[in-house]
Structures are given as structure tokens and as C-alpha cells.
Specification:
Chain B: Its EC number is 1.7.5.1. Chain B: It catalyses: nitrate + a quinol = a quinone + nitrite + H2O. The complex is a heterodimer of chains A (454) and B (1166). Chain A has 454 residues and is of the alpha+beta class. Helix content of chain A is 33%, strand content 14%. In chain A, the strands form six sheets. A five-stranded mixed beta sheet of chain A has the order 13-12-1-15-14, with helices on both faces. A two-stranded antiparallel sheet of chain A has the order 2-7. By secondary structure, chain B is α/β, with parallel strands linked by helices. Classes of the chains: A alpha+beta (454), B alpha/beta (1166). At the A-B interface, helix 1, helix 3, strand 5, helix 5 and strand 8 of A face helix 1, strand 2, helix 2, strand 5 and helix 11 of B. Strand 8 of chain A pairs parallel with strand 2 of chain B, so a sheet runs across the interface.
């Protein structure tokens, strides 16, 4: 056992209002400069939707992440390193700028400078790349709030049983995304220059700007398309987990500015020796459990001793013990990884969105506030469980259902408390009253010092 | 081992200070932080400054502004709000993507860096100035010469702005003011700047300047249609709502016509989190909105029919919780806190009866003071009782100590008993049927046939009781008769069973929790022509279930309802009441209705929308006639008031007597009677903190044509109506908008990161500061500095030319003053002395009326003598001139200090004094509500947001341990509402309410525009609030444009799009009789068929091509809307139905509109 520490994030999608404040504060802080106009280290997608860049989840096309070769060994989906080395001067498999979007501005100067003319002055759009007039056709958030046609969504394609895109059955939720700072990062493995690295102390994945040679293999390698190419400097850039802030105990910009208060930052301890083994788990549906299994219990004296032996500072261990991420991921098991089937062992996890539940029940005539009915209704969610499973559990509905049940049980239990009735916690919820109370505290009260333990 | 692994293993040894993981997948670099100096450097900054965004938004979020090398780099939210309790979520962080994108403006190419003026105007003015040697004469000549006037008016909005110096700009503006005051009168000068709470000093400084001149300040809250007229009607209060932390207390939350995640972004988390506390969330909205994502139940309701659903819910509630069984907590509540037990006289009409006025003490034959304003109920043993608390006790000498909610008896809700007789009452319906006839129990008192409001309410809602005659619904399934669940189903599209179940759940939760059911209601329900009826139907649900005045319960109206918490202090500064009283404060909607010529396009009879069983007082008249009548009656003020200069009236020995005599003789007319007469035009309009022409101007094309004389997209402008009324349009802003491009003079404003100011909201209980992160760059100036510049230029020109004058000011019967109970049908007249040469000095000092007359606020008067002395020490005393010895207000920071010192919410001494005065009137103990030691000074707000305290300025209690909910003082301390009965009203007994058939809650469908205007459009055209802007602010911001579709867009359903042959992102044109909009389509299955959304305030300046229909630039979202005055909003002098600035007045509603959309050529030209 080799204990290492990773700073990780959980986002509670049940609370995300899709406001994009995180995207804007991140962009203003990090990427509002030439060369990265199109880059959003943090973006928010409406799901179902195509995402940014368009259809990035279609790995048949983009070939990001890892696969298992015939011997069951991990291999970059885009091809082995030798193949990379041999084709280094060829165009890597990359989304085009149109798949991200062609950034633009407007002729704002017209508004003050226009001479006396026939009509009201106007600022038409102009491409920031070509400086030519342009028609805006796509953006980093084109399908916001179900705008346009979400049906090319690759996850939707997997939800074969029913595709519900009618007004009557409309559903949506928001998915904020940053770099996953994976335990098994395929971007790092893809880099021919060794410019990408995972920081020893906290697991943050960074690009060494001095070393990067602009091969862009990392862009191909990342299945989340969270490494970007700066066309001005010719180097790769990516989310840094705001390391200059995190190092001094501040949460990332996207977290601190999240007005939905849905982000949690904390330390996870994991067994570094077993990372490759976990990533090579044969059945992709077992990857979630395999990754969970890597996370060590910081309260376990054996783990503590191992952590100490590995040189982990005592305050990191203490932080790991108070980690909201550990609680949400491992203790309550309500947070799930995004696309575990990419085998990168991502470290930004998500609490799936619960609502609306009762709505689905109302049609059946059941009392939606009854806990037992609530459980029964989870399969009848407006948001299909299969869609959530396609995002978070390689298609396995069981962990999603279990997480949603806990959320539903908590609401039902607390409603009884709220109305002055005796609360009941059904055993199907799979949790104790103590855990429920602690989970409630973390999700509902979500105090600043409990959201961010750094 | 494969070849590639060999290569990698070899590579390991060539690398310094790096470790490769055993599996070769990961490269680990210890101490790699040096390699990323770029990001470390980027994060570094020199200072962080607290400020906020003075945009028209209720967020009032405190922000950190980062500055590096003297440049503003970016902003993130502050997280240091005081805690609201250990057992609930906190306010941190507050903010939204729009605020986060603000710093983009600072150095953006749309920033206005210098003063500008229209080139043609500058040339003509400079020539005349040179020739005549006098600015005022030059202005008079340019504006008086029809050709010159036409030349610069036609150039409005067509470019050709030139840079001018501040001196020249200020001189032109000052000259225009002096000329207008002298030639036409000060009330021809108007100022428009909305929502003081968002930056109190910036608002107050301009409003103060305008008010010192005797100019007109125009209201905004009613004009925006954000004012829920139902609030003054029912509560006698403008709007008072819970802070968002109180959502947490609610056990049942309906979001009805309100899209909380979009419009209340920083507050939305309370809703998401309260669900974890077991709160049930119901969303009612036409589309699958952002809010619907959080709903336990989502009800798609047809636009504008929400009232029908609420009426049906009320039917269920009355039947199941009042008639079939008694719910003690509900009946106890309505008896004490609503008008339900009060008696109403019935009048004969068409062989049957109709409800008339409340029975009053005078009807009982009592001769006591104000007997006609004291309402009556029946005691438990059936005797008439005049209980304390009605308006008659509020203003009379004898009422002292009796204005309270002590009933003295357990009143009867109904007159029904074993012996009562029944009368058949005619009740109007507006959903297509004839008036219904329903029986109510009656009794006779002192010769008057009476029943209770409760009895009328049951008849109105169609809830049958045995033994009463009339036409009643058979049951919930009866679809033919209002207001059953089955009746509403075909109207709203909501299944009958769901409507009934919701009502039941709502009431049961209220019963179980002591009234912790809340309805968040918003623009989607409020901004209809009949939005007040929709709201009254909502409020009825809350009143009947005892939810109002409870934490976690009641209404939560969140539309433009900003709360300027330090109200009294802001009020005195903004109205210049420290120097001159009263100020001219005019309702915006009728002002624009008259002066933009829109009244001429209402060609239908004002009786068209009246009740068939009303008295018929509107028949044969036009809406504009009713506006004029309201002005004549002294119900509403108007500007100008008369067709003569009020300074001329002031020259008479007794100006008031002279003015009355001239009116009586017919030599003097009200200007509202002839808005086309050039003597009656507004001449100067100043906009600041506002983009009227790119945002709120409903009937935008009428504004352009008639008010400005600019080219418009109006297809058939009325050739007989005036065009080009304004001599001067001035806008202060930091960015280019429709208002600046149509302005004659544009002044460069400092941004919110470049000045001192104060911010507050009703969404949270804190006051916090704006602070300059940098000095105003280029030639920009703060609003504070800009108005001082103008005032100095004005005073210099005015000293000799205008001197000291007497001004005759006409005011309406004012709510919360004794005049609200007036039988006079004429305005009050006041003589105000104005020292025009001293305006600049007065602007910069706190005047003597502050302590001499005190600060009136909602019926009490603060006496800030100690505070004025304190301010003199804190701010310094003016050494000379007319303001000698007065506290200085010569900086924005001192103005902040004065606002906080002079308000009860921030100064406990004043709050305590106000409650003491109030207690004399109520005769109850109100001590302990406020804390004398509570005091906020400006530096406190600069350090962190500070909690305000309970004050007579507001109706709710608050403290660090208590969340703010409105009317908790009323409910917990028996303090009356500011209404006729002193209770919350279901029944409104004014003649004009009867004329419109709205004395009781009623369902009124959206207007039939085909019948009224011949409108041929079929698609419902709605303009909800945008996700990517706060009104027009930010819609031009590159970050917001990059996250949205990058220009004007219209949402439509996939079904409608298919029918029209429109694909996502196609260019389309939306037209109707009012104008044309060119935009790109967003096609989505979340939209209901038949309805399109053009999100609010997409200005014409960004990516708007020329229209195919007119060949001209497409219009803004309000190009397709126009002003429609609802006459019942004009009522005055009738207790709560009395005028108050932004309190009561016709709304600029705009949701009843229709449009036709077609796909246009995809080749667009700009």
C-alpha cells in the first residue's frame, strides 16, 4: 500500500441551477486572453445536449481515454505510444475549432464612432480568429436550456429504450465540468514531451509550459476534452485546480463563486500501487467500485500509519478525515464519477439530480410524499435513470438508483420532521439515521468551512 | 515488454527531478510549481476592493474586485455575510454570471470615455452661441426654430455623435434647463432613474437635482409592470416580501410565474436546499423552465390563465376547509386579519342585487369623526360593531389609541343563521358567460340590506351552502360554472384533479405548520393587463390559509421589487425634502401613455372591458379621458400639471387662490386634457442608471416617433399627433445603449467599481458599500460628480435669469397621509419657493427642513435632530452661502453617511422614536421592536455587509436571529394594515372597481387583441427575464454573448418552428401592429406550442440586421408591445386605493401581446 493524497471535487447536480457563474469567474481569472478565447477550463452543459466541444463523449470518433487490449492491459484508445511517436508530425485526432466554437466579438466601436447615417448604428459580429464578419453558428453553450436539437447527444444514443424529447416529457439538468485531475490521466500518458504531470503532493494535473512542445496529443488523449491548445503560444493549457489558491488554503475560483453552493473540495487518500490495476478492471461497469476501493479510510490507523510513512503531513491526514468529498463519495456513496468507462479514474464526482419525482407519481395517483412511493418512483423520474447511468456508471443503473434513494429518503424523512410528524427511515434507503443527519448537514446547510476542507 | 515501454523506460533516465509511475502511465513531478510561474503570476494582485453592481437587480451581492497595476482584472464574490443561523444555509456566496462578467465593461470598446453630443446640434448651438453670446438664448433659438429643431431631432439615433468637452456639455444641458423653466415651467423637465436600492446615492443625486428645480421625477416600478397593484389593493402596502433565507422556513413552496434560478440566481440555492428539509416544490409556468428542473410537480399552464387555476384552488379550499368543515386556525385568522367579517351594502340592479360599498359607522347613523371611513361587522350575538383599526381611526384625533386590530368581539363571518333571508346577487364573469346569479344570506341594519364579504366570497367562488338560491356548480366536475376545478381545465390546461389535489395539499400543509406555505410569484403572472386579478386570486389562497405575516409563509413577489432599506434617509435626499416640499413625483405609465402619443391608438370604448353589471360610468369614453379625470380628481398627479408655467401662477398674490380661480373660470386647463398642445409637452428628459429606449419603453416605436421625432418602424403613425416633443434628451451611462444613441448629449459615467455608494435589497437583510477600485478613468465622472457639474453650470446661468421664484405644485391625495381619505375631487396645491441660483449649494448640503419638519415615512415622522448635529460633526459644516452652517453633502461618501444616519433601519434611535409615535396611534405596546443601540455607519458597510434592524419603514420584524417576513408586526402586534378596514382586503368597494367587475377576486382572461385592435398575430409574444442579462445590462457583454446565442433570439417550440419552416438559428422576423423584431430562432421542445419568448431587453445595438419588412433596423423586444392603461389603477383618495410614488398607479403591462413570425432571407444586411 502506497498512500497518496489527491485533492478532489464533488458537485451536487441536484443543486445546480445552470447559471454559469463558475464558468465566467474561471474564464475571467484564467483565460480571457488571446490564444484561449475559445477556452473554458470550466463549462456548464445542459443535458441532454451535445456538450462542449460538440459530442466530445463520442470516443468512437475522438478516441480519448483508455481501452483494454486483448490481453486486458490498459492502452490509450488513440493508439499506443509508439504509434504516437511515429505519427507525431501528422495531425492528431482533434476536435476542430468549429467543434469548440469560433470565438467572436462585435464592432462595438461603431456605436460611438458611426457618422450620421441612414439608420441606428449597430455592432455586427466579427470572428476573433479571422477578423472577418461572421454569422454565429455555435458556441460553448449552444444547447443551453435545451435550445436546438439535443438528440446528437452521445449519451442519449445509449438510452435506447426511450428518447423523450417532447414538451410533455421534457427534462433537463446541468453538468458543470472542469478537468477531472484523474488518477490515471490519459493526457499525461499521451504527451510525447513529458510536459504534462500529476503533482506529487496533491494530484493536480498540470502542463509544464516550459516543456510543452505543442504536439496536442494530450488533447486527443483526454476523453473529457479538458486540455486545450493555446493557438497564440502554441502550447497546451488546462484547468489548474487553481493551484495558486489551493496552495494557500483557498478553494478554487469555480467552487468559491458557485452560487448554487453545490461544490465540495476535499482530500482523498488512495492506494497508488493499485491505480493501474483498478483502471484495468475488465468489466467497465465494475470500474466505479474498483475506484471506490482505491480510496483509503483516513480514520483507519493502518492507513494513517501508511500515510505517515509516505511522508504525508499530519494536517493533510486531518483534512482527509474531515473531507466532505470522502463522505459524499465513499461514506454515503451518493457521488459518482463521470464516465468511469474512460478508465482514467476521474476525481471530480457528481451527486445525480433527483427531481422531479413526485411529478412522475402524480400521474399514477399515488401520494408522492410517501417514502415508499418515492422509492418506487425513482425509476419513473423525469430524468431517466438510464441516462444518468450512461454518464456516471458506465450504464449500470444500480448505483444511480441507490444514490437517488438516499436523497429521496432524506427528503421524506426531513419532511416529516418539518411537519411535526414522526419520521421514518425505510431500510431500503441503506443508511443510518446518523448518516442521514450528517448527509443532510452537508447537502442542505453546506456551510463554507464544511464545503471546502483544504 | 513492448517496444514502446522500452522507449519509455529509457526516457525515464533522461529526465531530471521526475518520477514515472511503475506502470509508466503517470509522470510525477515534485516541486513542479516553478514550471507554472505563469499561472502564479496571473493570480497575483495588488489589492482587493469591496464593491457591487448597481444594476436594476435584486441581487445586491457584495463582490471582491481585484486590481493589479492599477487595472481592474476580475471579480469574485465576497463570502463574509453575517450568519443567519447555525441551523440553516448562509447567504454566501451571492452573485451570478452577469455580475461576474462586469469588469469586462471597464475597458471594453462599448465604454463611453468622453462626453458626446449630436454633431448637428453642436454645430447649430455653437453658431448661435457665438452669434448671440448667450447660452440660454442660443438654446432658445435652436429649439425654437422649426427647421433647426427638426434637423437635430431627425438625426437622433443615426450616429454622428461628436466628442465635446465637459464644459460645453454641461453648458448646453444647463442652458436647456434654464430656458425650459423660464419658457414653459420646471415641470416640463423630467428625470428617469429606476430602483434607488441598487445605488442609492447615484439615484438620489440626480433626483435631488431635478426636485430642487421643481422638475418631475417619473415612477418606474409601476411603469415596469413590476408593481403588483394587488399589493396596495390587498395590503395597502407597495410591496413587502420575505428575504430569501425565509424560503427555508417554508414547508410548501409554489413558484408561480417566477423562474427563480434565472431571475433570483444568488437566492435560488435556498430553494434547492429547503427541499432537503422536506419542502415540497411546485412550479407553475408555461414552459419547462429552469425552475421546473427542481419541481416535485410541474404544471404547464397556458400563458395568462394562472388566475383561473388559483380561483379553482380557492373554490376547493373554501369548500373543504370552511364550508364542509371548520378549520379553526383558518377562521380565527381571517376574522382578525382580513375584511371577510365586514358588512357590505347590497344595491338593487336589474331586479336583483349587486354589492356596493362597505357598511360604515355613518350608515349606522353615528355622527362621530370620520364615521364614513369606519367599517362595521357583526358581533357574535349579531349586533353591528365598529371595531378599532379601520382608516377612520388612523387619521382622526379621536382615533388616537384605537388604530389597532382589537376586535372586541368574536365576529360573525356570515350573516347566515336560521332566520336569515337570501338575496340574489349578480356576479360578472369574463370567461365568456353571462353574469351568474347566486344567493347570499342578508340581514337589514339601519335600513341597509347587508351581507358579509365572506358570504359574497362564497358566492363569487361558487361554493354552495344549503338553502341559498341561484345558479351553483353541481360539483368539482361541473365544467360549465366558475370556479370549479373542471371549469379551469380547458382554460389552463391543468387537469381538474391536480388542481383540486394541490389546493388540498396546500391547505393541509398550512394547517399542519401554522401557515408555512409560500407562493413565489413573478412577472409571468404579474405583468398582464389583468395581472392584479391574477395576483388577488393567488393572495386569496394565502389569506384563507393564514399564511401571511408568518415566517415561511405568504406571498413572495419577486419582480423589480428592490427594497431601499434605509428608506427615510434616501427619501429625504432624493426628493430634496430637506430644502423644498413637496417634490413632483409622477406615475410613469400615464405620463408615457400621453406623451408618446400611444393614447391616440386606443380606439375602443373604455367601457369595452367593463363589467356588464357595473354602473356604466366608463361607457362612451376613452381611456385617455379617464386619465384626465383621475388628474382632475386629484387621484393621480401628472406633468406638466397645467397648460401654463407654474412659475407664472406663482406670481399672483395668492397663487393657490389664483390657480383655483383660473381653473374654475376655464382659463387654465389641466395639461393632461390636451397632451398634443406644445405648451403641454415635456421638454427635457434626463436618464441615468437607465436604458429607457433599449429596455422598458413599451411601445418603443411610438416613443421614437412621437416623443423623439426620430425615424421609427411604425407602419402607420398617426399624422395628427405631435412628433418630436423633447427639446433635449440627456443620458449618463458608461456603455452605449439605445438611450445613448438616441440622446442629444451623452455623459460618460463612472462604473460601479469607481465610486462610493450603498446597496440593499429585500432578498437579504444587509446593507453594504460600493467602493472605488480605481478612479474614474478617461473623462468619466460619477453620477454624483456629473450632477454637481450640471448644477453648478445651471446655477451660474440661472442666478440672474431665474432668480428666486414661487412655483405652484399640484399633488394628488397621498397614501399614508390624512389626504388618502379625501372627498375633495381636485388636486391639492402648494406654493414652493425656489432659489434657482442656489441649487448647486443646496445640492451639496443637508437642508434645514430635515429636522424642522421631520421625515415622514409611511404615516410616522422621524425627528432627526440629534442626527443632523452628528452629521454636521461627521461631515463638516458649510462655511458660507445659503447653506451656511448645514452639514456638508459634497462627496458621495458623505451622502452615504447621511442616508444611514437618517433611516430607522440603520439607526435604532429613529426606529424607536418612530415606534413610540406609532404606539400612540395604535394604543398598543410596540416597545422592544427596535433597539436604540443599533446603528450602522458607512465604514461598517465598507468592512462587510451589515444587518439592518426592525423599523416602522417596513412591516416585518428582523434581527440577526429572525428572518424577515412581511406583516409580522401586523400579525404579532395587532398593528393594522394601511387599508380601509385596517385588514387585508378581499373586497374593494370603489365605484370603478365595481365598474370593472373586480370588487371581488375574479378570473379575467388575457385581452382579446383581435377584437380591441384588429391584431392578426396568433402567437403569444412573451418577454420574460433573460438568463444572460439583467434587463439590457450585460446583454451586450461579450462573455454573456459568448455563453448565449450571441445576439437577439426568440425561443419557439419545435412544433411551431416546423409549421413555420424555421430551423434552429434561422433568422426570423416577428411583426405586429406596433413594430418589428429581427432575431434568430432558438427552437426547443421545452417551449409550449403557440407561445414564443423573446427574452427581455435585447437592445437593437448588437447583431440586429435591417428588417425585410421595413428596411430599417429591427426593434427591441418592446417594439412589439405598447402601453395599455387599466382604469382601476387610476383610482385615488380611497384609503389604500390612493396615489403613492411607485406605490399605486397604472402598470406598463405588456404580456397580452401577439405576433406573427416568419422565416426571412438568411442573407442579412446591417
Amino acid at each position: 500500500m502506497r498512500i497518496m493524497a489527491q485533492i478532489a471535487m464533488v458537485m451536487n447536480l441536484d443543486k445546480c441551477i445552470g447559471c454559469h457563474t463558475c464558468s465566467v469567474t474561471c474564464k475571467q481569472t484564467w483565460t480571457n486572453r488571446p490564444g484561449v478565447e475559445y477556452v473554458w477550463f470550466n463549462n456548464v452543459e445542459t443535458r441532454p445536449g451535445q456538450g462542449y466541444p460538440r459530442r466530445y463523449e463520442d470516443q468512437d470518433r475522438w478516441r480519448g481515454g483508455w481501452t483494454l487490449d486483448r490481453k486486458g492491459r490498459l492502452q490509450l484508445r488513440a493508439g499506443g505510444r509508439l504509434r504516437k511517436l511515429l505519427t507525431i508530425f501528422a495531425n492528431p485526432l482533434l476536435p476542430s475549432i468549429q467543434d469548440y466554437y469560433e470565438p467572436w466579438t462585435y464592432d462595438y466601436e461603431n456605436l460611438t464612432r458611426a457618422p450620421l447615417s441612414a439608420d441606428v448604428p449597430v455592432a455586427p459580429p466579427r470572428s476573433l480568429l479571422s477578423n472577418q464578419p461572421t454569422k454565429i453558428e455555435w458556441s460553448a453553450n449552444w444547447d443551453d436550456d435545451l435550445g436546438g436539437d439535443p438528440s446528437p447527444d452521445p449519451v442519449l444514443a445509449q438510452v435506447s429504450e426511450q428518447v423523450r424529447l417532447s414538451f410533455e416529457e421534457a427534462y433537463m439538468f446541468y453538468l458543470p465540468r472542469i478537468c477531472e485531475h484523474c488518477l490515471n490521466p490519459s493526457c499525461v500518458a499521451s504527451c510525447p514531451s513529458g510536459a504534462l504531470y500529476k503533482r506529487e503532493e496533491d494530484g493536480i494535473v498540470l502542463v509544464d509550459q516550459d516543456r510543452c512542445r505543442g504536439w496536442r496529443m494530450c488533447v486527443t488523449g483526454c476523453p473529457y476534452k479538458k486540455v486545450y491548445f493555446n493557438h497564440r503560444t502554441g502550447k497546451a493549457e488546462k484547468c489548474t485546480f487553481c493551484f495558486p489558491r489551493v496552495e494557500v488554503g483557498l478553494p478554487t475560483v469555480c467552487s468559491e463563486t458557485c452560487v448554487g453552493r453545490l461544490r465540495y473540495i476535499g482530500v482523498l487518500l488512495y492506494d497508488a500501487d493499485r491505480v493501474a490495476e483498478a483502471a484495468a478492471t475488465p468489466d467497465e461497469r465494475d470500474l466505479y467500485e474498483a475506484q471506490l476501493d482505491l480510496f483509503a479510510d483516513p480514520h483507519d490507523p493502518v492507513v494513517a500509519a501508511a500515510a505517515q510513512a509516505a511522508g504525508l503531513p499530519a494536517e493533510w491526514l486531518e483534512a482527509a478525515r474531515r473531507s466532505p468529498v470522502y463522505d459524499l463519495v465513499k461514506r454515503y456513496r451518493i457521488a459518482l464519477p463521470l464516465h468511469p468507462e474512460y478508465r482514467t479514474l476521474p476525481m471530480v464526482w457528481y451527486v445525480p439530480p433527483l427531481s422531479p419525482v413526485v411529478d412522475a407519481l402524480a400521474g399514477t395517483g399515488h401520494d408522492g410524499e410517501d417514502a415508499v412511493n418515492l422509492f418506487a418512483a425513482i425509476d419513473a423520474l423525469r430524468i431517466p435513470v438510464s441516462y444518468l447511468a450512461g454518464l456516471f456508471t458506465a450504464g449500470d443503473p444500480a448505483p444511480v438508483t441507490a444514490a437517488l434513494r438516499k436523497l429521496a429518503a432524506m427528503r421524506s424523512y426531513m419532511r416529516a420532521v418539518n411537519l411535526g410528524r414522526p419520521p421514518v427511515l425505510p431500510p431500503e434507503a441503506g443508511m443510518s439515521e446518523e448518516d442521514l443527519a450528517a448527509m443532510y448537514r452537508l447537502l442542505a446547510l453546506a456551510k463554507y468551512d464544511e464545503r471546502y476542507v483544504i | 515488454m513492448s517496444a514502446q515501454d522500452v522507449l519509455l523506460r529509457t526516457g525515464r533516465f533522461l529526465r531530471r527531478s521526475a518520477a514515472t509511475s511503475g506502470d509508466l502511465h503517470t509522470l510525477r513531478l515534485a516541486g513542479g510549481t516553478e514550471g507554472d510561474a505563469f499561472y502564479r503570476d496571473r493570480w497575483s494582485h495588488d489589492k482587493v476592493v469591496r464593491s457591487t453592481h448597481g444594476v436594476n437587480c435584486t441581487g445586491s451581492c457584495s463582490w471582491k474586485v481585484y486590481v493589479k497595476d492599477g487595472i481592474i482584472t476580475w471579480e469574485t464574490q465576497e463570502t463574509d455575510y453575517p450568519s443567519v443561523g447555525p441551523d440553516r444555509p448562509e447567504y454566501e456566496p451571492r452573485g451570478c454570471p452577469r455580475g461576474a462578467a462586469f469588469s469586462w465593461y471597464t475597458y471594453s470598446p462599448t465604454r463611453i470615455r468622453y462626453p458626446y453630443a449630436r454633431g448637428v446640434l453642436v454645430e447649430m448651438y455653437a453658431e448661435a452661441r457665438e452669434r448671440l453670446g448667450d447660452p440660454v438664448a442660443a438654446w432658445a433659438e435652436v429649439t425654437g426654430d422649426p427647421e433647426k429643431r427638426r434637423a437635430y431631432q431627425r438625426a437622433r439615433g443615426r450616429g454622428g455623435l461628436v466628442r465635446v468637452s465637459w464644459d460645453l456639455a454641461a453648458e448646453m444641458v444647463a442652458a436647456a434647463h434654464v430656458h425650459t423653466i423660464s419658457a414653459y415651467g420646471p415641470d416640463r423637465i423630467a428625470g428617469f432613474s429606476p430602483i434607488p436600492a441598487m445605488s442609492m446615492v447615484s439615484h438620489a443625486i440626480g433626483s435631488r437635482f431635478v426636485s430642487l428645480l421643481g422638475g418631475t421625477m417619473l415612477s418606474f416600478y409601476d411603469w415596469y409592470a413590476d408593481l403588483p397593484v394587488a399589493s396596495p389593493q390587498v395590503f395597502g402596502d407597495q410591496t413587502d416580501v420575505p428575504e430569501s433565507a425565509d424560503w427555508w422556513d417554508a414547508a410548501y413552496l409554489m413558484m408561480w410565474g417566477s423562474n427563480v434560478p434565472v431571475t433570483r440566481t444568488p437566492d435560488a440555492h435556498w430553494m434547492a436546499e429547503a427541499r432537503y428539509r422536506g419542502q415540497k416544490v411546485v412550479v407553475v409556468s408555461p414552459d419547462f423552465s429552469d425552475a421546473a428542473k427542481f419541481a416535485d410537480e410541474f404544471l404547464s399552464v397556458r400563458p395568462g390563465t394562472d388566475g383561473a387555476l388559483a380561483m379553482a384552488m380557492g373554490h376547493v379550499l373554501l369548500k373543504e376547509f370552511f364550508v364542509e368543515r371548520d378549520t379553526p386556525s383558518f377562521t380565527g385568522y381571517v376574522k382578525r386579519f382580513t375584511d371577510l367579517p365586514f358588512l357590505v351594502r347590497l344595491e338593487r340592479r336589474d331586479g336583483r342585487h349587486v354589492p356596493g360599498r362597505f357598511l360604515t359607522a355613518r350608515d349606522l347613523g353615528l355622527q362621530e369623526e370620520a364615521a364614513e371611513w369606519k367599517t362595521v361587522l357583526l358581533s357574535r350575538n349579531g349586533r353591528p360593531v365598529v371595531p378599532n383599526g379601520s382608516a377612520g381611526f388612523r387619521w382622526s384625533e379621536s382615533g388616537k389609541g384605537r388604530w389597532n386590530l382589537d376586535l372586541g368581539t368574536d365576529p360573525k363571518l356570515t350573516v347566515m343563521d336560521d332566520w336569515s333571508q337570501a338575496a340574489e346577487v349578480l356576479l360578472p364573469r369574463f370567461d365568456g358567460g353571462e353574469p351568474v346569479v347566486r344567493g347570499v344570506p342578508v340581514t337589514r341594519i339601519n335600513g341597509h340590506l347587508v351581507t358579509t364579504v365572506y358570504d359574497l366570497l362564497l358566492a363569487q367562488y361558487g361554493v354552495r351552502r344549503p338553502g341559498l338560491p341561484g345558479d351553483w356548480p353541481e360539483g368539482y366536475e361541473d365544467a360549465a360554472r366558475p370556479y370549479t376545478p373542471a371549469w379551469q381545465e380547458p382554460i389552463t390546461g391543468v387537469p381538474a384533479e391536480r388542481a383540486a389535489r394541490l389546493a388540498r395539499e396546500f391547505a393541509r400543509t398550512a394547517e399542519a405548520t401554522g401557515g408555512r406555505c409560500m407562493i413565489i410569484m413573478g412577472a409571468g403572472a404579474a405583468q398582464w393587463f389583468h395581472g392584479d386579478t391574477i395576483y388577488r386570486a393567488f393572495l386569496s389562497l394565502l389569506l384563507l390559509t393564514g399564511c401571511q405575516g408568518r415566517n415561511g409563509g405568504g406571498w413572495a413577489h419577486y419582480v423589480g421589487q428592490e427594497k431601499c432599506r434605509p428608506l427615510a434617509g434616501w427619501g429625504v435626499l432624493a426628493s430634496a425634502a430637506d430644502w423644498v416640499r413637496p417634490a413632483r413625483m409622477v406615475p410613469g405609465t400615464p405620463f408615457w401613455y400621453l406623451h408618446t402619443g400611444q393614447w391616440r391608438y386606443d380606439r375602443f370604448d373604455a367601457g369595452e372591458l367593463a363589467s356588464p353589471v357595473g354602473p356604466g360610468v366608463f361607457r362612451g369614453r376613452r381611456t385617455a379621458d379617464l386619465v384626465a379625470e383621475a388628474v382632475r380628481n386629484g387621484w393621480m398627479p401628472m406633468a406638466p400639471a397645467f397648460d401654463r408655467n407654474p412659475l407664472e401662477l406663482g406670481e399672483a398674490a395668492d397663487p393657490v387662490a389664483y390657480t383655483r380661480e383660473e381653473l374654475r373660470a376655464g382659463r387654465l386647463r389641466y395639461a393632461a386634457e390636451n397632451p398634443e398642445d406644445p405648451r403641454n409637452w415635456p421638454r427635457v428628459l434626463t436618464l441615468w442608471r437607465s436604458n429607457l429606449f433599449g429596455s422598458s419603453a413599451k411601445g418603443n416605436e411610438y416613443f421614437l416617433h412621437h416623443l423623439l421625432g426620430a425615424t421609427s418602424n411604425l407602419e402607420h403613425p398617426d399624422p395628427e399627433a405631435a412628433s418630436g416633443k423633447l427639446d433635449l434628451l440627456v443620458t449618463l451611462d458608461f456603455r452605449m445603449t439605445s438611450s445613448t444613441v438616441f440622446s442629444d448629449v451623452v455623459l460618460p459615467a463612472a462604473t460601479w467599481y469607481e465610486k462610493h455608494d450603498l446597496s440593499s435589497t429585500d432578498m437579504h437583510p444587509f446593507v453594504h458599500a460600493f467602493n472605488p477600485a480605481i478612479s474614474p478613468p478617461w473623462e468619466t465622472r460619477t453620477d454624483f460628480a456629473a450632477f454637481h457639474t450640471i448644477a453648478r453650470a445651471f446655477s451660474d446661468l440661472a442666478r440672474e435669469r431665474l432668480g428666486v421664484r414661487r412655483d405652484v405644485v399640484a399633488t394628488a391625495h397621498q397614501h399614508d397621509t390624512p389626504s388618502e381619505l379625501s372627498h375633495d375631487r381636485e388636486p391639492a396645491l402648494h406654493v414652493v419657493e425656489r432659489d434657482y441660483g442656489a441649487v448647486a449649494e443646496q445640492l451639496a448640503a443637508l437642508g434645514p427642513l430635515t429636522e424642522r419638519l421631520g421625515l415622514p415615512v409611511k404615516g410616522v415622522t422621524f425627528r432627526p435632530d440629534e442626527e443632523v448635529a452628528w452629521l454636521g460633526v461627521r461631515c463638516g459644516l458649510v462655511p458660507r452661502g445659503v447653506a451656511k452652517g448645514r452639514p456638508e453633502l459634497d462627496t458621495d461618501a458623505k451622502a452615504c453617511e447621511a442616508i444611514l444616519a437618517l433611516s430607522g433601519a440603520s439607526n435604532g434611535r429613529l426606529a424607536v422614536q418612530g415606534f413610540r409615535e406609532l404606539a400612540e396611534r395604535t394604543g398598543t405596546d410596540l416597545s422592544g421592536l427596535a433597539d436604540e443601540g443599533h446603528r450602522i455607519v458607512f465604514s461598517d458597510t465598507q468592512a462587510r455587509p451589515v444587518h439592518v434592524s426592525t423599523s416602522p419603514e417596513w412591516s416585518g420584524k428582523e434581527s440577526p436571529g429572525r428572518r424577515y417576513a412581511p406583516f409580522t408586526i401586523n400579525v404579532e402586534h395587532g398593528k393594522p394594515w394601511h387599508t380601509l378596514t385596517g385588514r387585508m382586503h378581499f373586497f374593494l368597494d370603489h365605484d370603478w372597481m365595481h365598474e370593472y367587475g373586480e370588487a371581488l377576486p375574479v378570473y379575467r382572461p388575457p385581452l382579446d387583441l383581435a377584437a380591441l385592435f384588429g391584431e392578426s398575430g396568433r402567437l403569444r409574444y412573451l418577454t420574460p427575464h433573460s438568463k444572460w442579462s439583467i434587463h439590457s445590462e450585460y446583454q451586450d457583454n461579450l462573455l454573456m454573448l459568448s455563453l448565449s446565442r450571441g445576439g437577439p433570439s426568440i425561443w419557439m417550440s419545435d412544433e411551431d418552428a416546423a409549421r413555420l419552416g424555421v430551423a434552429d438559428n434561422d433568422w426570423v422576423e416577428a411583426v405586429n401592429r406596433n413594430g418589428v423584431v429581427v432575431a434568430r430562432a432558438i427552437v426547443s421542445h421545452r417551449m409550449p406550442p403557440g407561445t414564443v419568448y423573446m427574452y427581455h431587453a435585447q437592445d437593437r445595438l448588437i447583431d440586429v440586421p435591417l428588417s425585410e419588412a421595413t428596411g430599417r433596423r429591427g426593434g427591441i423586444h418592446n417594439a412589439l408591445t405598447r402601453v395599455l392603461i387599466k382604469p382601476t389603477h387610476l383610482i385615488g383618495g380611497h384609503a389604500q386605493l390612493s396615489y403613492g410614488f411607485n406605490y399605486f398607479g397604472p402598470t406598463g403591462n405588456q404580456r397580452d401581446e401577439l405576433t406573427t413570425i416568419r422565416r426571412r432571407s438568411q442573407e442579412v444586411r446591417y
